[in-house]
Amino acid sequence: MSVVAISGGVGGAKLALGLDRSLPAGELTVLVNTGDDFDHLGLKICPDIDTVLYTLADLADPAQGWGRRNETWTLMQTLESLGEETWFKLGDADTALHVARTRRLKAGSTLTEVSEHFRTQFGITSRILPMTNECVQTRIDTDEGDLAFQDYFVRRRCAPRAHTIRFVGATDAAPAPGVIAALASPGLEAIVLCPSNPYLSIDPLLAIPGLRKSLESRAAPLIAVSPLIGGAAVKGPTAKIMQELGIPMTPVSIFEHYRGLIDALVVDSVDADAAARLPIPTFSTATLMTTLDDRLRLARFVLDCARTLPRH
Amino acid sequence: MSVVAISGGVGGAKLALGLDRSLPAGELTVLVNTGDDFDHLGLKICPDIDTVLYTLADLADPAQGWGRRNETWTLMQTLESLGEETWFKLGDADTALHVARTRRLKAGSTLTEVSEHFRTQFGITSRILPMTNECVQTRIDTDEGDLAFQDYFVRRRCAPRAHTIRFVGATDAAPAPGVIAALASPGLEAIVLCPSNPYLSIDPLLAIPGLRKSLESRAAPLIAVSPLIGGAAVKGPTAKIMQELGIPMTPVSIFEHYRGLIDALVVDSVDADAAARLPIPTFSTATLMTTLDDRLRLARFVLDCARTLPRH
């Protein structure tokens, strides 16, 4: 059974880990948002790809949700003493990945090739594909002006009020090699929209015409997992963004956002009633993923739900 | 009393430290070899400037002679696990300097400006000037082919037999801002050629026509310190290079190399007899610099000798 997961950073990576550990080796392909990617201190940083890599390689820091555990911070401390910007935290091991990626990209490799190299070096059997090798930039129009994603998310800690979200370059971007093939694979049994932020982390992928078209013409069922639990978001700016965009914090909003695209929605048990009236199949279970067991259990639940859905 | 020191890496930096600590704050200017500079993993690395910075900031690793003490190696270990080259050792704190330098150069600063920023951040009162802001590359023609300096020196550990040494770009390079002014300063009391490798570390500076001309037209006395002690070199490839180039390991060879340029030569006490017949003033003392006291004592000795020499 081969599966494609579509993921942003932390929340998506948790479910991707559950899927990676639940499926036979090599049967999972994770399509990852690159709208957050940026150049910082001369280094090419891909926060969502990095989080998926670290999570699937069992190297992630479970406490902070980004970066590596057992990390050291000598470089960051020295950068600070040299008068460099330190709002984006660069651990020593994490920086090695950015240095290696930057070097390989400059030497002519694509982000797809570099990501493939990294996941192999990390011993990850699932494939990790960037959504595109072209430049797509998530930008937030806020009451403090138009901000690049990391400026908004990390430097300003999502403090500015968001008005609109744009994915600059998405319309002209082609899906990265392997993306269309994975979605169109005859052996594909399910496509899972992970519980990442729909507006910031999943929408960049859906904004790429070729990728969206490939999803729309899929044969495999597409099932989304709501990032909301009882009117709140587990982590990150989802709740604040929804509030500022005037979107009610209910699974109905998640359905409306993905309407016409998804075949089914998995919601938390506390949202079962709110989701019951939706015109697509809904499934409810505990969706909070604190432990590895939580991730495995939710992954198996999502796969079981997907198996009940008809192919197109 | 203002003084200019001309230095390569380790050996030169030791005497530069002695001079820095012996002179009133701000009276020393160190002109540093940049022929060893190279780009590695996308980072601009200036080994001799780094060694002088770390040494004068009291951050240098006294055991290995390069890099910083209390260094951590997380980034290097991770680079190795990612399949990157590891022949050039990059400590975590050291890498921060390279990252900051690379960023500042790309942002339009000159190497002079970046070095000035670093020495200020490190609390160094002496000025540290690169010999040039243009590209000069030390290359060694060996029996294994033409090698860039770091390929020869670090990657191949000076194993190939050297035939000739070239400083590509030197003829067309201009001295960096401040270099000519420092050498022509009316208040300059002495110019010191530090006991760095004459062929690999000092010659790149002398190969820049404007710099050499400025030395030749100096008013202040120019005194060199021999890097040899009793037919041996303290560290590095000096002995091997001299042997391969067919140059006898005596202070006479150092004099011949600098003939017409230097006013006096400081040699080790064991070489006093060999230097006695030279047609310029020679001074002998213990030149091995193991402790900080050694560096201070030699620096004061060199300054005292210089004070006995006439101005031009």
Describe the structure.
- 2 copies of one chain form a homodimer.
- By secondary structure, chain A is α/β, with parallel strands linked by helices.
- Chain A has a single domain (about 1-305), classed as Rossmann fold (3-Layer(aba) Sandwich), CATH 3.40.50.
- Chain A contains 13 helices and 14 strands.
- Chain A has helices at about 10-20, 45-55, 75-80, 90-105, 110-120, 150-155, 180-185, 200-205, 210-215, 240-245, 250-260, 270-275, 290-305, and strands at about 1-5, 30, 40, 45, 125-130, 135-140, 145-150, 160-170, 190-195, 220-225, 230, 230-235, 265-270, 280-285.
- In chain A, the strands form 4 sheets. Chain A has a 7-stranded parallel β-sheet with strand order 5-2-1-9-10-13-14, with helices on both faces.
- In chain A, α1 packs across α13 (about 290-305).
- The longest helix of chain A is centred in the C-terminal third of the chain and has 16 residues, at about 290-305.
- Chain A starts with a strand and ends in a 5-residue tail after the last helix.
- The mean pLDDT of chain A is about 95.
- The interface of A and B includes residues 74, 76, 79 and 118 of A.
